[in-house]
Amino acid sequence: MNNARRYALPALLLLSLGLGLLFELVLPAPKGLAASLLREGAVRLCYAGAVCLLGAYAGLALGSLGARPGRLGALCLVLSFAVALNNLPISCLLSGAATVTAGVDAALALALSCLATALFEELLFRFFLFRLMLDRFGLSRRGRLAAVLLSSAVFGLSHLFNLAAGASPGATLLQVGYSFLVGCLCAALCLLYGRLSLAVAFHAVYNFCGYLVPRLGQGPLYDAPTVAVTVLLALACGGCLLLAVFDRKNKIF
Question: pTM of whole model > 0.85?
């Protein structure tokens, strides 16, 4: 690494972090739901830039090795987006028990915020942490399994910080659990497809479907049909995940 790159990358990293902290902690809160969501997205984009620069400084690079996922990859992709769409309380919305009351501008702002958050978290936990763990544990079946489980566990446990924001212990523990499962699916997509973009897309859709009613509307999120479908999808994804981890043909992005 030449001297210009050695000093420029940390400087840009600190700038990205500084801008994120400025938006989040210093500048006054904007008025209106849409404006607040856009600021939230801007903060996450600044942090995503910092992670990119940190990865560049560590010698990591985005890109694909030309993976050929085949039928297993297609199955994992379909199941992942089924999980994401199932995070939307479809049954409750159709029955009228849950409603969305905010306007289109707030929905678009929420979509952008979810995309920015997914980009930041996937860069941090899959591009950076998962890659480092694969380097540490190796690309054997046991090494891949360890990297998937440990990086996903760290991702899930990071949601304990929601307790400091006033979230209830029960809801937080539930979020830790399903965030671990989401992390495993994102890691499986990276293993099978050799790229980060699909994990980001899945993560963004999952977050948007999960936040649409709580943040832009009101009503229950779960009923008996939703719980039953969720359990079936969880079992199917668990089996697909094991196949992805132990498949010899998958590639690492």
Answer: yes
